[in-house]
């Protein structure tokens, strides 16, 4: 049974405020203009600076956005030729540092480059040529255009959970097919992928991301390999065992509530931005005995998680709580709640896409207005 959250058809939800995680970014880039030549001495103006996108570790698209709030990156102009320096110096290049695993495209959907490894780069705006004898000593302007940086996604939805939560079984149930293995160039880990197919033929890709254990943020187990994959999904589905979890006889038993907080803590310690992704919570194994009471207890704890933090070890308490779009009890073994989960996944993804589309339209309208104002100013002059 759905518990009346975002995906309950009986509830009229307002548009959710999605967080600060950024998986795509549109920027205006312009190469620098060339420098003026010097006719009387045959001097050559310096070339304008170029704009490059360069991949670098520990960078996120949100950090790029924060560094360039106006979303305008302009390279330096070439230096004019002078008596002291007949050949003008080149203008300063601008480097846009971005995370590995991105696709750089122009506004007309042309792929400018795919950057998978650290240190790879692509030229996105070329500087203008300096003035020479052949151009009447007049320089040319730098190239100007809008570009998009898109984080390469392995799937629309990522299943996040500790071992034995039933992620693989759930993926099989949702996709009605045995998950296949796919390899991606920016990591050596191979997540299991499946596709949810809806009656209207809409398809949503889902990845079971194995390897998360306590301490993953410090690279225990598959640690960082797992967490890098989490960054490359649009939406997270936390999967927990309603009866709790214990990795081995040597590790402590964790209740369902503790398991949720541990998952949040591991993601938070790796990259706080991950907690801004839209997230659902799936409470699995509801076919077992006495699970309704355990579910009721978990729902009560999730309504006020801070009120129960005192029951957790200090190093397990997350700095930020996660407000799940919905909490869905399911059984991967019997199929209980699976159809409701499918509906909910699609609903939240479509809401996010609608918000992204609205934001893109707003940005383009602002750019158009700026261009109109500049043209008006030039006409006035």
Automatic annotation (TrEMBL):
Keyword Nucleus appears in the UniProt entry: yes
Entry GO CC: mitochondrion; nucleolus
Record carries keyword DNA-binding: no
Compartmental location: Nucleus, Nucleolus
Domain OBG-type G: 155-350
Domain Obg: 19-154
Family to which this protein belongs: Belongs to the TRAFAC class OBG-HflX-like GTPase superfamily. OBG GTPase family.
Protein's UniProt name: GTP-binding protein 10
Lineage of producing organism: Eukaryota, Metazoa, Chordata, Craniata, Vertebrata
């Amino acid at each position: 049974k759905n518990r009346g959250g975002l995906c309950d058809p009986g509830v009229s939800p307002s548009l959710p405020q999605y967080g600060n995680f950024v998986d795509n970014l549109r920027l205006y880039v312009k190469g620098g203009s060339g420098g003026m030549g010097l006719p009387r001495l045959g001097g050559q103006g310096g070339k304008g600076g170029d704009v490059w996108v360069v991949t670098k570790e520990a960078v996120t698209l949100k950090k790029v956005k924060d560094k360039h709030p106006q979303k305008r990156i302009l390279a330096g102009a070439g230096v004019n030729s002078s008596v002291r320096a007949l050949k003008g110096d080149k203008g300063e290049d601008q480097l846009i540092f971005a995370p590995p695993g991105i696709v750089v495209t122009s506004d007309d959907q042309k792929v400018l480059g795919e950057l998978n490894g650290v240190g790879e780069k692509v030229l996105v705006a070329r500087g203008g040529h300096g003035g020479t004898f052949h151009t009447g000593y007049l320089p040319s302007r730098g190239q100007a255009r809008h570009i998009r940086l898109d984080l390469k996604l392995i799937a629309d939805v990522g299943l996040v959970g500790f071992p034995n939560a039933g992620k693989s079984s759930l993926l099989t149930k949702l996709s009605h097919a045995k998950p296949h293995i796919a390899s991606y160039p920016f990591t050596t880990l191979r997540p299991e992928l499946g596709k949810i197919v809806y009656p209207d033929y809409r398809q949503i890709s889902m990845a079971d991301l194995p390897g998360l254990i306590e301490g993953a943020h410090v690279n225990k187990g598959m640690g960082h390999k797992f967490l890098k994959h989490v960054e490359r999904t649009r939406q997270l589905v936390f999967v927990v065992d309603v009866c709790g979890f214990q990795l081995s006889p040597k590790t402590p038993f964790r209740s369902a509530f503790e398991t949720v907080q541990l998952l949040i803590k591991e993601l938070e310690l790796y990259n706080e931005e991950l907690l801004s992704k839209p997230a659902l919570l799936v409470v699995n194994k509801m076919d077992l005995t006495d699970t309704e009471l355990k579910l009721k207890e978990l729902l009560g704890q999730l309504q006020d998680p801070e009120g129960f933090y005192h029951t957790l070890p200090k190093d397990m308490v997350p700095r930020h709580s996660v407000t799940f779009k919905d909490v869905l009890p399911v059984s991967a073994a019997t199929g209980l709640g699976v159809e409701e989960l499918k509906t909910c996944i699609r609903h939240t993804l479509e809401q996010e896409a609608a918000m992204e589309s609205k934001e893109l339209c707003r940005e383009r309208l602002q750019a158009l207005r700026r261009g109109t104002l500049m043209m008006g100013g030039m006409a006035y002059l």
